Amino acid sequence: MTQFAVIKKLTAPDKAEVEVLRGTACGGDCGSCETCHYASKIRVEATNDIGAQLGDRVEIEARTSRVLGAAVLVYVVPFVLFFIGYAIAAALDFGEGLRMLISFAAFALGFVVVTIVGRSHRKNPITYNIISVIGHEAA
Known about the structure:
The chain is of the alpha+beta class. 38% of the residues lie in helices and 29% in strands.
């Protein structure tokens, strides 16, 4: 997975802190939706083996499988557990109120799973590599 970023700080001879503009649903091209100004910028550390300099616009790359795995963990697991909780409660012939309560408890359990797995992945975070210099940001 590649993204575009700007080098904000050189942290070591082979490392740089880059600022990535997080995308919006409309891709940042739509002037009519008025939501693009809510896009946020994040800073991550990237390996700088190509010698990019401060202020350079660069293309960074991360392993797609790691990024998609994190997205599935955060966005899919809680909802899957929600529906599994409802199905189990329905199979046990519980009333609708109890089914919903069990569903939301399973949904909350999903966030507990996300938190535990997220903490275990802090030791091995997603890594980014600068793969090309596109230009230099205007001052």
